[in-house]
Design goal:
It contains 5 helices and 4 strands. The chain has about 120 residues and is an alpha+beta fold. A hairpin with a 4-residue loop joins strand 1 (about 75-85) and strand 2 (about 90). The longest helix has 20 residues, at about 50-70.
């Protein structure tokens, strides 16, 4: 679970993840692939591994709770939203302070709407 979480929520490469756990690149790729498979949806619309997905969801919630309660408040970071603005034919990269990637997008969209097609990248600074 931690491999999938780190891969989805950080900019760590497969090599850096492998180094963190003292594993090689193929082992890292295998573990991340297994995580994605377990949390995927079958062709019939059902979660592939409901128990694993629920444990993962609860683990992520617990991790967020621990981070937020460490100082009695949410942990805020700067997030850079890079998106293509068709009106100006330019890429724009505003920085937003938020508690998560989702919150960063939500915070920015209060002032400027971004469509899914326009959003290119969101990364924590």
């Amino acid at each position: 679970m931690i491999w999938g979480y780190l891969r989805q929520n950080t900019e760590m490469t497969l090599t850096s993840l492998g180094n963190l756990f003292n594993r090689d690149h193929p082992s890292t790729l295998h573990n991340i692939t297994k995580h994605y498979e377990a949390t995927s949806i079958t062709p019939t619309g059902v979660l592939y591994d409901i128990d694993y997905t629920e444990r993962y969801r609860l683990g992520v919630l617990e991790l967020k709770h621990l981070l937020e309660s460490g100082h009695g408040e949410k942990v805020y970071r700067n997030y850079m939203l890079t998106y293509y603005n068709p009106a100006t034919d330019a890429y724009i990269a505003p920085v937003v302070k938020a508690s998560s990637l989702f919150e960063a997008i939500k915070e920015y969209e209060q002032y400027n709407a971004i469509t899914d097609e326009e959003l290119v990248l969101v990364k924590a600074l």
